[in-house]
Amino acid sequence: MSSHKTLQHKLKKDKRVNARDGNSHFLDITCSKCGQYVALYQKDGIGSLLRMYLDRIFEPKEVSALQFKEDKKDIPNLKCSKCGEVIGVPMVYEREKRLAFRLIRGSFAKKMSEGGLESSSREN
Ligand SMILES: [Zn+2]
Question: In Å, how far are 27, 45, 93, 97, 109 from 21, measured between CA atoms?
């Protein structure tokens, strides 16, 4: 394993962003129970965060890789890696036939992010 370095992500720009008026930003998603980092997510557009589309999850890589699954049955619940709290359950957003996690209210906290990945989190 090589040393830690900061990984800087870039916002995805595609037709889905344009459809949501281009107001995209990164969010750090953390477990509300223990503060563990859960995911780096690109939110397109304004409004509350009810679901996370798999193709907008940048970190962790093992979760990001799930976007290439074809069936939500192949997708496990999104859980906190530290305390095991369930953050989201797999779903298909029918309007776009898009895989997503339906987020469980109160299980997570979100914070605006620059898209850089910190190796440790001091929040909470
Ligand atoms: Zn936790």
Answer: 18, 6, 19, 20, 24
How far, in Å, is the centroid of ligand 1 from the Cα of 22?
Answer: 32
Tell how far the Cα of 61 is from the centroid of ligand 1, in angstroms. 18
CA of 104 to the centre of ligand 1 (A): 13
Distance CA 39, CA 23 (A): 20
CATH of domain 23-115: 2.170.150
Ligand 1 centroid to 100 CA: how many Å? 20
Lowest mean pLDDT among 16-25, 33-42, 50-59, 115-124: 115-124
pTM over 0.85: no
